[in-house]
Amino acid sequence: MANRTVKDAHSIKGTNPQYLVEKIIRTRIYECRYWKEECFALTAALLVDKAMELRYIGGVYGGNVKPTPFLCLILKMLQIQPEKDIVVEFIRNEDFKYVRALGAFYMRLTGTAMDCYKYLEPLYYDYRKLRRMSRDGKFELIHMDEYIDELIREERNSDIILPRIQKRNVLEESNQLEPRVSAVEEDMEDMGTDEEEELMEESRRSASPENRKSPSPRRRSRSPHKREHHVKNRDERRRSREKEKRHRSRSPGKRQREEEERKRKSKKSRGDRDRHEENRDRHRERGDRGKPDRERERERRHKDKDRDTHKEKDRDTHKEKDRETHKDRSRGHRDRINLDPEIREANELRAKLGLAPLRP
């Protein structure tokens, strides 16, 4: 009894609405757990709550051919056959995308060609993502507009054969439908009108007398100074490019020979510098050797005398420093003695008696 269609249901396409789903898949739906627990005694009012709980769409999946909750609710809608207003509200619902997908699928199964084009084509402007369960049990992403396009154009969706509908051009020729203008064509027309307006505005500006008299900034000639600077920069850039091109066009052998020649020149300059230093030292030795013995002896004595004077000065400075340090120490002893009142009194008494003062 739970799997039968309601008594007052109308036949769709000349047959029982549940027969739109194939018998094998329908049997699998009757045997699944979701159908027995969630879809038992389900009414049109309670169907909305179940549709809001959907999280993906799809047909059957897995090796044992399990139906998805989306497919179970489609069969339940075919069984209870809700009113057309409820299905239209499902399609117009913008808060829950899976509720909209459920209503669109049911409208495609049970509606006429006019209803399908009237209610489903506005959903082409819905670009939200949907999760769909594939046959191997994996999820894939699809957009709402792609899903609606598949419902209108394909013969099978979610493992259900879709009823045939008339082509749109046939309905347009019979004046039952107005020609559809896509969003892309509207954007192209808007762009075309904008370009035409811009061209007309430019032609109007160019035709004005003010623009005729004043030349455009691009056509103004450069000043002589700027022109000379520009030519100079251009020649420098050309020379740098030619130099780089010559450097790149050299063969490896030529580059190697130039590198060896450069090393040879650097080695030669280094050898010349060393020889110059040797000659300078040699001349200095020769000059010293050419001096008479008397002059060399005089220079040696002068150096020894300077050394002795420096030593005497250092010795005198050391003696002065030692003398100053000794004075400071004795002054410090006297200060410490004077600061101590007991020692000071004792020294005064000893001085009266003619004795030597105490030392700290």
TrEMBL record:
It comes from the Eukaryota. Residues 215-232, 244-254 have a biased composition (Basic residues). Residues 175-360 are annotated as: Disordered. GO terms for biological process: mRNA splicing, via spliceosome. Keywords: mRNA processing, mRNA splicing, Nucleus, Spliceosome. GO terms for cellular component: spliceosomal complex. This is Pre-mRNA-splicing factor 38. It comes from Littorina saxatilis.
